[in-house]
Amino acid sequence: TQLLEQSPQFLSIQEGENLTVYCNSSSVFSSLQWYRQEPGEGPVLLVTVVTGGEVKKLKRLTFQFGDARKDSSLHITAAQPGDTGLYLCAGETQGGSEKLVFGKGTKLTVNP
Amino acid sequence: DTGVSQNPRHKITKRGQNVTFRCDPISEHNRLYWYRQTLGQGPEFLTYFQNEAQLEKSRLLSDRFSAERPKGSFSTLEIQRTEQGDSAMYLCASSFRAYGYTFGSGTRLTVV
Fold it and tell me: What is the 3-state secondary structure (H, E, C) of B14-49?
């Protein structure tokens, strides 16, 4: 069973602070995706990383894929209340399967 | 293009009843996925279609669950003889490539 461990599980910070959330596995993934989910809604894709060592930036969000394609991180600079949500990482398994394996998520609360 | 549409948004049913959910994917997407999400967990893969062919099914998909995608357009997910453990958010997603899903808002099922 391929598992993705996300940490921390919960994070509550003040507006303007920086934060990093982590997504780790013992398995290698073909690609890794990050989603944000709000209560009662489906996840919304933020980014897909494919190449080991890849770094992608989306405004104040920076995503990194580990060199060995087993782990990833999401760094948010100067967090805002609008960043509040559940951040999920999901890995595409190798071997031809198109299913995604999701972590349990990091629930982020940014207080004004 | 209105994104991925799921109906109904909420369904409350009595244990033992059958329920059917519908998903309308983005029209040019040939891949369609069903996931299930329970409280505090990330989405879990149920099944995947490419056009009208069901190419992969999870062991989570017991004999009581069936999914169809006639003509490669919309999809239905039916649960027969519902049990309380079936209570969850059922998410549909579609994509054009093997990664980068667009999720719908989900159907929240409560079995009483």
Answer: CCCCCEEEEEECCCCCCEEEEEEECCCCCCEEEEEE
